Amino acid sequence: MLDTPAPKGNEPLDYPDPMLAHFLSALDVRIKSLDFEIDERGQPILDEVRDRLANFPIIGSEHSTWNEAYRLERLLALIEPPSRLFAELTRRTQEAIEEGVPTAVRLKETLEDAKRTLVDTAQPPKLRGDAVAAARLLLLDALEEIHWSAQRKFYGRPLQKAATSRTINVGILTFFLFLAPYLYIYFYHVLPEKNDGPFLPFSWFPAYTALTAGLFGAFFSRLMSLQSSGNNLTLGVLKDARNWSSILSRGVVGMCGALIVFFFLQSKLLGGTLFPDFAELGLAITKWPHATANGQPVDGFHWLLILPNQQLALLVVWSFLAGFSERLVPNVLASTEKTLSDAINKTK
Hints:
Elements: H1 18-34, H2 43-54, H3 62-78, H4 82-98, H5 104-117, H6 132-190, H7 205-229, H8 235-241, H9 244-267, E1 283-288, E2 303-308, H10 310-324, H11 328-347
């Protein structure tokens, strides 16, 4: 929140937000440039902006303060001299394009139409006398879109940060859930006195691997979406993304998708080298460096490497993709439905 006292009279502007201070200083210069070209009809608006800027208020929060600054800029657009109006419209449209304003394409198309309908062909190009009002409305439209986009980013950034932070926290927990059996296996082999007997607790290992890989894939997908597309998401989506219910529901969907793929793979309705053979699921245990001819490790030291074998790795990949991609399971179901329908039709 901005809590600096409002400057009075000719006191210098001193705000915690350097971007706001720069924005207001730019407005101050533009006001002085308008003194030479403004007519008597625009003088009241110019006086209002000048007075408001000289006594610029701190209005409770940064959001409302920036809103007031943007309002002053839009007021100046109402009295922009006709000789500078089209150039300002062109500059603002280009600014919208460079800033990635969502409606920049529409603004650019509108500017191109204005060049054909509102501007004389003389060099340099200038507005026709009867086109000033229309051009001013276009300038206001461009400013409103730029201001909305800036405010949306400013307001949405904390929402995006909260959603990302919560997703990362849950994703880290899920990651350790996925690794827990492997950590236990390594711990089991580190302690020789416990290194006997079968891994009876791991009878559920394939299903557990599928569920946790799908859960991790779902949170990883959500995190990627927030990082790559956060600026393009609506405020409603960002608010929903930071809710624990939304985060957990995305994880549940990922687990359900992974479970469906797990049973599809086990049913062998899908076959080929890209799909795991459940009868061969297991771990590949190797030593490095390899033992010498007398069966002893080199220099009496070796690493014991415990890795998923190819079939287990394939199960992890498919389960992760089932949680990561929201389209994988529907595509698998549609493909299977088509295969079954073709098979039924052949038997008729």
